[in-house]
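Hi everyone, sorry if this is the wrong subforum. Our group has a chain we'd like a structural model of before ordering constructs, and none of us has done structure prediction before. Sequence below.
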Amino acid sequence: MLNRQFDFSPLSLEDALKLRQRPKVDEFPNYYFIVMYAPLAHAGSELQMTEVDLFVGENYVVSLHPGEVPALDLARKRWEKAQPGLSDRVGFLAHIVVDAIIDSCFPIVDDIDDRLHRLDEIMFHSNRGANPEELLVLKRSVFALRMSLYPLREAFSEFPKREHALFDLETHPYFQDVYDHVLRLLDIVDIQQDMVASATEAHLAFMSNQLNETMKTLTVVGICEAAAAAVFGAWGMNVTGLPLAHARIGGVDMGFWLVCAFTMILIGLALAWLKRRGMW
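Answer:
Right subforum, don't worry. Here is the predicted structure as tokens:
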């Protein structure tokens, strides 16, 4: 139907049907074919992007997308509030749709920024590691944003071309504003990508340090147990002639208590040695 009604190229129709296309702007003699990705509902979970294909002609804008897209609802509201002198221009309508899709990414990067700051507070103020699942979700979300925005930097740098008479010259500055928004988002996403990498490294460092502290504690416990086991193992053998085994003080058998006292002295010496070496 689209081919009969609008005479779209089979190449663009094939790309629209296959989905999972790279974001781009293809120029045809009588229309533009624009591929973008719009974010879906995002509330602290992993970001999901959906493909939106736009066919922009002299007097129409056709959009193809699976399911509902919140950014297009925002575009419709902006179109209804547009000034009468601009609302009848297809270039301005195309700008509203494209700009709404780009602007819908700003709340996403703000939410990611807040979640990254919360992770920093957990790791550096609460003195505990971050949630690995949360780090992985943030990493995937930032990656999805970058994959959907990075190709648009080149695509919108010269869009629309001035030699193409499809849009009025008055609408060109509006698309330059869209290009500025893309660059701004890419700067934020690049910073957040570095922040996610730094948070992951900090989490791994914290877990490694926690493991070292656990190993130190186990080493101290093992040395104390080894000292006690050595003494009680030697004096617990069924042999005669062991020192202090049958010691008597004032007619009272004190051998057991003297061995316990000797054991405690050995453990105290071991702890003092470990303390001096900074292991306890």
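For your construct planning: Residues 172-235 form the longest helix (64 residues). The mean pLDDT is 80.
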